[in-house]
Write a structure and sequence with these properties.
157 residues, mainly alpha, Arc Repressor Mutant, subunit A
Length: 157
């Protein structure tokens, strides 16, 4: 059995710092989103994903994949969002077994009202703390890791 390549002091510091930053940042952004807009992070993710599509609708399976959630978990969450009038579900015209999630007018109003405050919080707690070079580095490293984890880097080789 091969011996593990333990993290050196600098790598360990970077790893622990990243994990702590991610938890604190996610927690603060979620608190502010709930306090200011009455939306959870998953609510906002659903609404913003739908609002960014041309017809403001996505298949449930595609939305679940985007959110990295199971279809069952998303379905339960969507039921709660439907009860609040933020989304509706329709049968998929091309596949009677599938469902399509549709942004309602109320959902559009909610995401449009939440977006300015959410963007201000992202700026305040992350973006404005970094230099332009650090933003460029963050952009490059996040895309590199995402490409690796989604298999896109292998597709380019």
């Amino acid at each position: 059995m091969e011996q593990p390549r333990w993290l050196d002091e600098r790598e360990q510091s970077a790893w622990r710092g990243y994990r702590r930053m991610r938890r604190l940042l996610d927690l603060e952004l979620a608190r502010e989103l709930m306090r200011d807009a009455g939306l959870s992070e998953p609510d906002y993710d659903v609404l913003s994903d739908l609002s960014e599509t041309p017809d403001q609708r996505l298949r449930l399976s595609e939305l679940a994949d985007r959110m990295l959630w199971s279809r069952s978990r998303l379905s339960h969450h969507l039921t709660r969002m439907q009860q609040r009038g933020l989304v509706t579900r329709e049968e998929c015209a091309s596949d009677g077994r599938g469902a399509v999630v549709v942004l309602t007018a109320e959902g559009r109003r909610a995401v449009e009202a939440a977006a300015p405050g959410h963007v201000a919080a992202v700026r305040r707690h992350l973006v404005d703390l970094l230099t332009p070079d650090e933003i460029a580095a963050l952009d490059a490293l996040t895309h590199r890791v995402v490409d690796h984890l989604t298999g896109r880097d292998a597709a380019r080789d």
